[in-house]
Amino acid sequence: MNTTxxxxxxNPEQKxxxxxxxxxxxxxxASDSVLxxxxxxxxxxxxxxxxxxxCRGAICGSCGMRINGHAALACKTKIxxxxxDSQTIHVEPMNNMPVIKDLITDMSPFWEKIRQIQPWxxxxxxxxxxxxxxxxxxxxxxxxxxxxxxxxxxxSDCTVLEVDSKFVGPAALAKAYRFVADPRDDATxxxxxxxxxxxxxxxxxxxxxxxxxxxxxxxxxxxxxxxRAKGIDEQLPSTTGSRHAEVFTDIIKNKGILxxxxxxxxTFGFRNVRRLIGMIPIAIQSFRHKKIAPSGPLHRAIPGIDxxxxxxxxxxxxxxxxxxx
Amino acid sequence: MKYxxxxxxxxxxxxxxxxxxxxxxxxKIGIDLEEMTTAACTGAGVxxxxxxxxxxxxxxxxxxxxxxxxxxxxxICSTCQGVMSQANHRMTTDGEYLAEINQILGExxxxxxxxxxxxxxxxxxxxxxxxxVLRRAITQPLTGLRAAPFYGCYLQRPTEALQFxxxxxxxxxxxxxxxxxxxEVVDFPGKSRCCGFPILTINEKNxxxxxxxxxxxxxxxxxxxxxxPCPLCHLNLDGMQAKAGNQQNxxxxxxxxxxxxxxxxxxxxxPKSLGFNRNFVSPHSTLQKLATVxxx
Lengths: 325, 296
Hints:
Chain A is of the alpha+beta class. Chain A is built from 13 helices and seven strands. Helix content of chain A is about 40%, strand content about 10%. In chain A, the strands form two sheets. Chain A has a five-stranded mixed β-sheet with strand order 2-1-5-3-4. In chain A, strands 6-7 form a two-stranded antiparallel ribbon. In chain B, the strands form two sheets. Chain B has a four-stranded parallel β-sheet.
């Protein structure tokens, strides 16, 4: 099929380096991958095109790039799916990391964040002569997260990293979970304490971009949510994030419906004068724009709240039993 | 067509104009609503941070209540829709898990059979009401209005739970509705990104950066307004826009409309009846532009 690859190019060796788009028209099979197309461009049309690839089988994690606006592995993206809406496929380097040349990005910031979470086993037991053995059933729950191939695709599309390069990011947090949840690791509290700091697990927006683009089904955001739950279970020093989750749950349990003003006040804490004063302009605006119901800013509990309370209690007990299995 | 209407906490709280506007427009498009007054908050992804199974139990209760009413659920919030879709997906694709949830519900005399269809208002507009009925309800096409869509993460991802494969129009439903209403779609890169609301209390600087990025970007692409099917996005994009602008040393001034407000405009309804006076960023310029087009 006739296909156009519209590629974002960048050559740092040009006099005034600036990114630009270049189009290549070529014949490809529907079953070819985008990587097949790019290699064909390089081999038959323009040998100056720079890209990184190796295994061509979604194992090595080298060919991460943005295809039609979303990060993906070029080797795993078929031409037929990439041309669903148009015969032109837009190909760009990954986001949230510097571009070295054309489709090749500098992965240094990625690796720096992976190192930051100390991705190695830290047991308190003496070093064994051979492996740290664990029964298979104690490791099964980690099989998903251990499939991460460090391709950087989730980091590319992370909405927080887009505005804050200090955020540790989805790949490193998923890797942190892999060690926090490993039964052989004894650094859980220390790891979670580090992730409880600004830029850590509470800065994720839960936008699910990482879940959507991950080519291996790691589900980084789900791991981040599990880290948060573990942080709350461990009773780490409370943060705005953990208080937000605790207060939210408490309000729903007791009213079934959210009181937004109370959620904010209790999350900040009654003694946090600076944040409470910061809410005043919004409160005034809300009154001025008649956002507040005539009955006041707080809700009454919804009908059926007693049943909801009982379900909260029962589900929490069941969940505790489940987690301790 | 009748639906069990799940209004969500925000339309009953900080965005009363959403509830107000949907109440105005729904009778005009041939649907009927029965409000679920005893259904609890979905958890909005926050409850799920603390305890994912607890969130699913609470949502399963809501689905079971809809089954008793023998009605599909209609939501008006991307977040409610997404959280419910994900919960339903987990339960309907894993019989063992559903049985565990039902064991907890069972002690209250409730059971979820896995049959409830949960859909956002925007999907109902296209999939049930249909383009023909919608067009007939439009008495003042929004000709000349340039509208930027903003979905809300939960109405875009994860695509499997939102059944995008079975419903190929869903990923671009908002653009489709804007076109049907006669307005021009302003495409911009941030339309399916995060508005920043979930971290507003946690990291205000990042959250406001997201607001500024998307609203300024839409404006630079020529948008007169932005329209969203998510009240949580509205709270941030509208409510925090002035502060986000201050952080960037600029005034952004992009009116953010709830989807039913835009629909109501195209139905020539009184802006006050649609709660326009409750929007923080005044839509006055939008209304003026429309009035000029209509009179010319």
